[in-house]
C-alpha cells in the first residue's frame, strides 16, 4: 500500500470514528434552524417579558401539527409546568366554536338561522322584537353585553343553558335587531339555547359529538378537579396572584370553553379543511354580515362574519380569527385559508396584549420559511452594534443594544429609556421592564426580519426603505424605527 493510500485509510478511519459525534453536531445545528426552534425562542422570550405564569401555542399546517410550544407553569403553587396537555380557558374564542355549531345545524337542515329565536324557543319569556341566530352570531341583535347587574355572574352554577338564558328575560335591547353592532356574550348564551333546540341535545354534548369530536375542548374546569386544567391568575400591582373562582355555566358559548393549544389549532385546521362544515358553508360564514340598511358590519380593522372575524395580515393574506379575554386568560385563534395554516395562543392570566398579532408572529416561521431565509440572509446580524437610534411616533429615541448569535439566530437586547416609548411598553398590569429582546427570523443568523418582544406581545420588525433601518408597527397607530450603531 502506498503512503498516500495509507494516509487516506487513516483519515477515513478517523472520520468514521468521529462521524457519529460530527453528525450529531450537524443535526443539532439543523434542529436549531427549524421554524419550531424560532417559535420556541419567541414564546420563551414573550414569557420572560410579560410575566404571565404559563402559556401554550400551536401551529397546524395542512392538517398536521407542526409545532406546539409550552412555557411556564399551569399551577404556580404546586410548581406544575405547562405541557401539551394543559387546558386553558378559551374565553371568547369559544364564540367561533359555537357559531360553527349553529352553521353546521343549518347545513344539516336542523336550524333556520333567519327564523326568530322566539319561534325556536317557545319557552323564552322576553318582550324583544324578533331576533335571529344570524344576528346573534354577528352581534347585531341589540342584545347587551355584561352589565353592572352581572358583577357576581361567576358565583352561581346553572344546571342548564335554559336556566342561564332565563337571566336575560328582563333585559332591554340596546337597539332594534339588525340596526347596530353591539358586542354581546349574552347573545351567545342565547345562541347556545338555539343550538340545543336544533340539535335536540345539550349544547356541550353536541359540541363534543359533532363539532370538536376527539379534541381536548370542553367546558371550563379551571377551578375543578381536571388535573390538566391550568389554574387562573391575575396581576395585582405588578405581581401575580391566583384569580378568584369563576363558574362559566352562564355562557359556555360566549366564553366558557377550555382546551389545549393543539386542540384549538386542530379545530381551526378542520374548519379550513371542510371537515367540520362544508366549504360552501364556511364561505358564507366568512362573508361580512350586513345591517338592515345593507351596510357591512365592521369593528376596528376587521369585517364581522358569522361569528368569525375576517381581515388581512401585514403581507395582505386573508386571515380569519377571534380573540378572547376573561378572568385568568388571554386567547387567540388565527387561520390563513391561503396557506392552510392554523395558529393558537393560550395563556393563564389576563394581560394587556396584542394577542392576534402575537399569534401571527409565532406562526411566521412556518408561513414563510423559505422566503424568510432568502430575504434576510443578506442582512447580517449587527454583532458590533452598541447603540441604537430611531424614533417612536416621531419622537427621537436612543439607547444601548447588544447582539449575539444564539443557536444560529440573531438575538438582540436593547434598553428602554424613560419617555413615551417606555410608557407604551409598560402600559400593562405587569411589572415594568427596562429592556426588550429582538429575535431574528433568519435561520442563517441574519436580521432582515425579526420579532420585537414586549410585555404587550410580539411585533413585526422589518427593514424599512432607504436609511430608515428597521421599522415596526405597534398597534393601529404607533410606529417604531431603529438604526444600529
From TrEMBL:
Protein name per Swiss-Prot or TrEMBL: Beta-lactamase family protein
Species: Thermomonas carbonis
Residue intervals of the Beta-lactamase-related domain: 40-349
One of the Pfam families matching this protein, by short name: Beta-lactamase
Keyword Cell membrane attributed: no
Keywords attached to this entry: Signal
Signal sequence, renumbered to the chain: 1-24
Amino acid at each position: 500500500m502506498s503512503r498516500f493510500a495509507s494516509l487516506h485509510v487513516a483519515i477515513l478511519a478517523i472520520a468514521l470514528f468521529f462521524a457519529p459525534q460530527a453528525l450529531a453536531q450537524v443535526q443539532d445545528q439543523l434542529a436549531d434552524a427549524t421554524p419550531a426552534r424560532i417559535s420556541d425562542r419567541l414564546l420563551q422570550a414573550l414569557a420572560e417579558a410579560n410575566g404571565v405564569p404559563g402559556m401554550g401555542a400551536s401551529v397546524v399546517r395542512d392538517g398536521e401539527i407542526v409545532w406546539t410550544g409550552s412555557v411556564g407553569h399551569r399551577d404556580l403553587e404546586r410548581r406544575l409546568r405547562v405541557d401539551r396537555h394543559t387546558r386553558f380557558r378559551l374565553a371568547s374564542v369559544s364564540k367561533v366554536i359555537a357559531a360553527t355549531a349553529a352553521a353546521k345545524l343549518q347545513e344539516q337542515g336542523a336550524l333556520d338561522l333567519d327564523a326568530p329565536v322566539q319561534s325556536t324557543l317557545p319557552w323564552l319569556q322576553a318582550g324583544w322584537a324578533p331576533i335571529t341566530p344570524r344576528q346573534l352570531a354577528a352581534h347585531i341583535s341589540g342584545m347587551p353585553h355584561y352589565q353592572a347587574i352581572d358583577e357576581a355572574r361567576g358565583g352561581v352554577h346553572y344546571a342548564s343553558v335554559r336556566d342561564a338564558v332565563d337571566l336575560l328575560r328582563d333585559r332591554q335591547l340596546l337597539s332594534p335587531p339588525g340596526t347596530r353592532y353591539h358586542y354581546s356574550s349574552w347573545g351567545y348564551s342565547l345562541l347556545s339555547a338555539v343550538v340545543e333546540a336544533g340539535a335536540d341535545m345539550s349544547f356541550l354534548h353536541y359540541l363534543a359529538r359533532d363539532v370538536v369530536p376527539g379534541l381536548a375542548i370542553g367546558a371550563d374546569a379551571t377551578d375543578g378537579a381536571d388535573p390538566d386544567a391550568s389554574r387562573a391568575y391575575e396581576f395585582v400591582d405588578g405581581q401575580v396572584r391566583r384569580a378568584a373562582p369563576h363558574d362559566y355555566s352562564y355562557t359556555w358559548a360566549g366564553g366558557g370553553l377550555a382546551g389545549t393549544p393543539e386542540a384549538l389549532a386542530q379545530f381551526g385546521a378542520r374548519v379550513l379543511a371542510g371537515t367540520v362544515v362544508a366549504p360552501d358553508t364556511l364561505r358564507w360564514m366568512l362573508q361580512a354580515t350586513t345591517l338592515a340598511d345593507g351596510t357591512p358590519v365592521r369593528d376596528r380593522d376587521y369585517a364581522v362574519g358569522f361569528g368569525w372575524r375576517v381581515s388581512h395580515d401585514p403581507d395582505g393574506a386573508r386571515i380569519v380569527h377571534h380573540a378572547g379575554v376573561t378572568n385568568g386568560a388571554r386567547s387567540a385563534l388565527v387561520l390563513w385559508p391561503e396557506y392552510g395554516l392554523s395558529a393558537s395562543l393560550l395563556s393563564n392570566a389576563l394581560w394587556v396584549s396584542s394577542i392576534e398579532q402575537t399569534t401571527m408572529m409565532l406562526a411566521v416561521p412556518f408561513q414563510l420559511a423559505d422566503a424568510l431565509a432568502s430575504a434576510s440572509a443578506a442582512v447580517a446580524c449587527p454583532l458590533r452594534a452598541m447603540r441604537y437610534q430611531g424614533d417612536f411616533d416621531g419622537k427621537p429615541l436612543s439607547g444601548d443594544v447588544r447582539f449575539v448569535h444564539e443557536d444560529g439566530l440573531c438575538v438582540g437586547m436593547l434598553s428602554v429609556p424613560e419617555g413615551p416609548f417606555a410608557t407604551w411598553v409598560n402600559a400593562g398590569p405587569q411589572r415594568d421592564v427596562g429592556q426588550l429582546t429582538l429575535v431574528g427570523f433568519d435561520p442563517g443568523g441574519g436580521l432582515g426580519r425579526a420579532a420585537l418582544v414586549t410585555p404587550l406581545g410580539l411585533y413585526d420588525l422589518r427593514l424599512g426603505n432607504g436609511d430608515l433601518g428597521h421599522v415596526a408597527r405597534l398597534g393601529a397607530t404607533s410606529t417604531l424605527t431603529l438604526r444600529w450603531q
